[in-house]
Amino acid sequence: MAYPMTVFHFRVEWGGTQIGFSEVTGLNIEVQPIEYRDGLSPEYSVIKMPGLKKYGNITLKRGVFKGDNEFYAWYNEIKMNKPERRDVTISLLDEEHNPVMVWKVINAWPTKITSPDLKANGNEVAIEQVEIAHEGIRIDNE
Prior knowledge:
mainly beta, seven-stranded antiparallel sheet, two-stranded antiparallel ribbon
Protein backbone atom coordinates (compact mmCIF):
# COMPACT_ATOMS: atom_id res chain seq x y z
CA MET A 1 0.00 0.00 0.00
CA ALA A 2 1.29 3.46 -0.87
CA TYR A 3 1.15 6.23 1.72
CA PRO A 4 1.35 10.00 1.19
CA MET A 5 4.59 11.78 2.03
CA THR A 6 5.12 13.30 5.47
CA VAL A 7 5.85 17.02 5.84
CA PHE A 8 8.59 16.92 8.48
CA HIS A 9 11.64 15.89 6.39
CA PHE A 10 12.75 18.68 4.04
CA ARG A 11 15.74 20.74 2.97
CA VAL A 12 16.01 24.42 2.01
CA GLU A 13 18.86 25.67 -0.17
CA TRP A 14 18.76 29.45 -0.04
CA GLY A 15 22.27 30.59 -0.88
CA GLY A 16 23.37 30.77 2.74
CA THR A 17 24.85 28.30 5.20
CA GLN A 18 23.37 24.82 5.06
CA ILE A 19 21.25 24.91 8.21
CA GLY A 20 17.95 23.24 8.95
CA PHE A 21 14.76 25.23 8.79
CA SER A 22 11.90 24.35 11.14
CA GLU A 23 9.05 25.50 8.91
CA VAL A 24 8.27 26.66 5.37
CA THR A 25 4.91 28.23 4.54
CA GLY A 26 3.39 30.05 1.58
CA LEU A 27 4.14 27.68 -1.29
CA ASN A 28 1.06 28.71 -3.23
CA ILE A 29 0.32 29.53 -6.83
CA GLU A 30 -2.82 31.22 -8.12
CA VAL A 31 -4.13 32.17 -11.54
CA GLN A 32 -6.33 35.22 -11.28
CA PRO A 33 -9.53 34.89 -13.33
CA ILE A 34 -10.56 37.56 -15.81
CA GLU A 35 -14.30 38.05 -16.18
CA TYR A 36 -15.64 39.14 -19.56
CA ARG A 37 -18.99 39.48 -21.27
CA ASP A 38 -19.90 41.09 -24.55
CA GLY A 39 -23.28 42.66 -25.29
CA LEU A 40 -24.20 40.09 -27.95
CA SER A 41 -23.80 37.12 -25.62
CA PRO A 42 -27.00 35.07 -25.32
CA GLU A 43 -25.99 34.18 -21.76
CA TYR A 44 -26.69 36.67 -19.02
CA SER A 45 -23.48 35.90 -17.21
CA VAL A 46 -19.77 36.48 -17.66
CA ILE A 47 -17.22 34.01 -18.93
CA LYS A 48 -14.04 33.43 -16.97
CA MET A 49 -10.61 33.29 -18.58
CA PRO A 50 -7.22 32.64 -17.01
CA GLY A 51 -5.33 35.83 -16.25
CA LEU A 52 -2.05 36.65 -14.55
CA LYS A 53 -0.31 34.19 -12.27
CA LYS A 54 0.16 35.28 -8.69
CA TYR A 55 2.62 33.82 -6.19
CA GLY A 56 2.33 34.29 -2.44
CA ASN A 57 5.30 35.27 -0.32
CA ILE A 58 7.14 32.38 1.33
CA THR A 59 8.06 32.37 5.02
CA LEU A 60 11.13 30.45 6.20
CA LYS A 61 11.57 29.81 9.94
CA ARG A 62 14.68 28.59 11.73
CA GLY A 63 16.37 28.62 15.11
CA VAL A 64 18.53 31.56 16.18
CA PHE A 65 22.24 30.74 16.49
CA LYS A 66 24.91 32.92 18.11
CA GLY A 67 26.85 34.91 15.50
CA ASP A 68 24.52 33.97 12.61
CA ASN A 69 23.40 37.15 10.86
CA GLU A 70 22.86 35.77 7.36
CA PHE A 71 19.18 36.76 7.09
CA TYR A 72 20.09 40.33 8.07
CA ALA A 73 23.09 40.44 5.71
CA TRP A 74 20.84 39.35 2.81
CA TYR A 75 18.19 41.91 3.84
CA ASN A 76 20.81 44.67 4.10
CA GLU A 77 21.87 44.09 0.48
CA ILE A 78 18.63 45.73 -0.67
CA LYS A 79 19.50 49.01 -2.37
CA MET A 80 16.56 50.97 -3.82
CA ASN A 81 15.30 48.87 -6.74
CA LYS A 82 18.13 46.33 -6.70
CA PRO A 83 17.77 43.56 -4.12
CA GLU A 84 20.13 40.60 -4.20
CA ARG A 85 17.92 37.99 -5.89
CA ARG A 86 18.52 34.32 -5.19
CA ASP A 87 16.96 31.11 -6.40
CA VAL A 88 15.73 29.06 -3.45
CA THR A 89 15.16 25.30 -3.65
CA ILE A 90 12.84 23.56 -1.21
CA SER A 91 12.90 19.75 -1.31
CA LEU A 92 10.58 17.29 0.39
CA LEU A 93 12.76 14.27 1.23
CA ASP A 94 12.17 10.53 1.57
CA GLU A 95 13.66 8.35 4.31
CA GLU A 96 16.96 8.04 2.35
CA HIS A 97 17.18 11.88 2.18
CA ASN A 98 16.42 11.91 -1.58
CA PRO A 99 14.20 14.66 -2.99
CA VAL A 100 10.70 13.46 -3.85
CA MET A 101 9.08 16.82 -4.55
CA VAL A 102 11.03 20.01 -5.30
CA TRP A 103 9.87 23.61 -5.38
CA LYS A 104 12.28 25.89 -7.27
CA VAL A 105 11.63 29.48 -6.24
CA ILE A 106 12.88 32.00 -8.79
CA ASN A 107 14.50 35.40 -8.08
CA ALA A 108 13.68 35.54 -4.37
CA TRP A 109 14.57 38.43 -2.09
CA PRO A 110 13.74 39.18 1.56
CA THR A 111 10.84 41.51 2.30
CA LYS A 112 10.55 41.05 6.06
CA ILE A 113 12.52 39.61 8.96
CA THR A 114 10.82 38.77 12.24
CA SER A 115 12.93 38.22 15.33
CA PRO A 116 11.77 35.81 18.05
CA ASP A 117 9.34 36.84 20.77
CA LEU A 118 11.14 37.01 24.09
CA LYS A 119 9.38 35.71 27.22
CA ALA A 120 10.83 35.46 30.72
CA ASN A 121 8.85 32.29 31.41
CA GLY A 122 9.21 30.80 27.92
CA ASN A 123 10.46 27.25 27.38
CA GLU A 124 11.01 27.06 23.65
CA VAL A 125 13.69 27.62 21.03
CA ALA A 126 14.20 31.17 19.73
CA ILE A 127 12.87 31.15 16.14
CA GLU A 128 13.50 33.87 13.55
CA GLN A 129 11.74 34.10 10.24
CA VAL A 130 12.32 35.70 6.88
CA GLU A 131 9.58 36.39 4.37
CA ILE A 132 10.65 36.32 0.74
CA ALA A 133 9.00 37.66 -2.39
CA HIS A 134 9.74 35.93 -5.68
CA GLU A 135 8.86 35.75 -9.36
CA GLY A 136 7.66 32.19 -9.70
CA ILE A 137 7.77 28.57 -8.58
CA ARG A 138 8.60 25.53 -10.69
CA ILE A 139 7.46 22.25 -9.15
CA ASP A 140 9.06 18.84 -9.82
CA ASN A 141 7.25 15.82 -8.39
CA GLU A 142 9.74 13.01 -8.91
